[in-house]
Amino acid sequence: MDDSSNSQLQIRFVTKQEQYAVPDAPFAVQANISTSQLNTLVNELIKESQSAVENAVEFDFIVAGELVRSRLGEHVSERGVSSEGVVTVEYVERLPAPQPSDCLLHDDWVSALHARDKWILTGCYDNTLHLWTMKGKHKLTIPGHTAPIKAVAWVSVTDTLASFVSASHDQTAMLWEWSVAANAVECVHVCRGHERGLECVAVDTEGSRFATGGWDALLKIWSAGIHSASDQEDGESASKRAKRDGSKSQIRTPLLTLKGHREAVSAVCWRGSDSVVTSSWDHTLRSWDLTSGTLTSELCGNKSFFDLHVSPLTGLYLTASADRHVRLYDPRSTEGSVVKSTFTSHSQWVQTVRWSPTDEHLFISGAYDNTVKLWDSRSPKVPLYDLIGHEDKVLCSDWSVAKYMMSGGADNTLRVFKSKQYKS
User: Rounded to an integer, what distance in angstroms lies between the CA atom of residue 127 and that of residue 146?
Assistant: First the structure.
């Protein structure tokens, strides 16, 4: 279509944010109108129809399911939208730029990270775990592993007691119990069964089981209970038996072992209570049914997968691969490609991806180019913001607490960014 100033489009504005609603009657605009001009126009319409909104608001615009990042006519043409009829332009309040909140210094690479409630758990290449408050105060350094820690996850958290699991290249996962009041931690169970180093761990939503994957290409399911029935022998608890035997922790074996991947399992995510999804260096994403212990589906990529995250809101998959791209998969797709979008902005390998826990469109990615990027899934070509701060490659990320985006890197730091959506 002709994008000249003489060409026009018939458009109508719609929004799901009722406080900014305007009449949806169609009217004509120049085809080469910019997003800033659209923004001015919508604010004028809001002023005319709603006296309650006094200050101008910054909006983003969506046409044909994608954020408009060019002139409107160009966007409409590129997405095959007919310019003969009325083009629907949805507008949403623009997400404010996240602000740097904290930088937590470690003695070695930060390779594992998980936040929950008021607490942050990190794991490092010097074999240590660390507990922090959400305000950046260091609570504990925890030794125990004998090789770099590659994954951590909270199991349960209360005001007085918490438990978490760590996975290491020393071929073990360790289940820990932390007395919050006493600020004392104990390794209750050492989980043995993998034949090579571990790469990933994930806990189910009930906190009853966790899954691990590693370089032996195996997926293993374990009990996450600190004092489960399987750890009782003749009425004697594991902790009492361990003290009697002179050891500090009890060996735990897996409930289930699943084989199928041909190379390292790089990430694992739960889907419901009896299903998990794994990514692997063998270029596949696999879904497993834990009740029957069988593989239920397989998606093939063209690169090794370094990370996988399943949206808690939509079930869509995000992947990080041995290239510069983040890919969005729809596992429910029955027509065409299951790769719904490819997000390209990083200049080196993408190592980590995490969905927002509260917004179905937002996610972060971290890469070997030292950057973390905040994306809207409706804008594949341009990220919303670059979260700058790391001075070396980004190794892990977390967005479990809605207002905090976090990342760990080879610069020995944990970077925390706070969303300005949340005032407190």
Answer: 6
